[in-house]
Amino acid sequence: MSSNIKTCDNTAAESFYKKADALRLENLYKEAVSNYLNAILIDRNNAESYYGLGVCYKHLKQYSKAIKYLDMASKLQDDCYEIFFELGVCHQLEGIPCGAIKNFVRAIQINPDNPEAILQLGISHELCEEYELALMIYQKLIENSPGFLRAYDHKSTLLMKLGKYREASNVLHELLKLNPDYYKAYAGIGICFDKMGKTNSAQRYYRKFLTEKPFSHNAEFIQNRLEKLKNRKFAKNKFHICK
Q1: Which end of the chain, N or C, is surrounded by fewer C-beta atoms within 10 Å?
Q2: Predicted local distance difference test score (pLDDT) of residue 192
């Protein structure tokens, strides 16, 4: 949590809060919760305790509680990026992406230079099936933060979902120019060429991916697809010879 969140002056509450923070950083979320609650019982105006409590409930997958306490934190301190970002994330995890949007917008207003909130805003619009708006956000993020590779990844994935394989392939090629080791892009380009019926190009990129990532969770699918393309090509050539 950034130091810009106001700390409480009450010594006992601060002691509980510091203990809770230490437990949270050790991933001991259940233990941290009781200490945050003790801090809040003593001082109900400490945004840090509400924030920490909300984050703990997020990690415990109790998203409605996380939203409740993060919302309390936001009312006590309405200029903290972390609070609104976590609120947006929790709304997404709770399956309320449209509710996440206003929180990511607020986070961006507070810190417009952080690309993560902008990316999550795009994802939220995508989950709300506002695809064109999501694409605009990803593109704007690429323009403003060209080194933020995940923006290319999400934009290309959405374009593929929409059946825009040529555009998706172009975005993935841009990504590879920035980072030739982003091996997932080779699989993506292979799928795009596969969908466009460009078998030779699809095989080439599938092989590049398998050479670099033979044990990836996508490797079995890519290998099977590559075999099918080989068999199809062989059958086609055999047909022409027979003719």
Answers
A1: C
A2: 98
Contact between residue 152 and residue 171 where contact means Cβ atoms under 8 Å apart: yes
Show Cβ contacts of residue 70 under 8 Å, excluding neighbours closer than 6 positions: 50, 51, 54, 55, 83, 86, 87, 90
Mean of all residue pLDDT scores within the chain: 92
* CATH among 1.25.40.10, 1.10.3720.10, 3.40.630.30, 3.30.559.10 for 147-243: 1.25.40.10
What is the per-residue pLDDT across 187-203, written as a single tens digit (0 to 9) for each?
999 999 999 999 999 99
Burial of 220 (0-12, 13-18, 19+ CB in 10 A): exposed
**At 98, which amino acid appears?**
C
Given a cut of 70, is residue 235 above it in pLDDT?
A: no
Selection from 202, 182, 176, 180 nearest residue 191 by Cα: 202
Q: Is the per-residue pLDDT at 18 higher than 60?
A: yes
**Residue 11 pLDDT class (50, 70, 90 cuts):** confident
73 alpha-carbon distance from chain centroid: 23
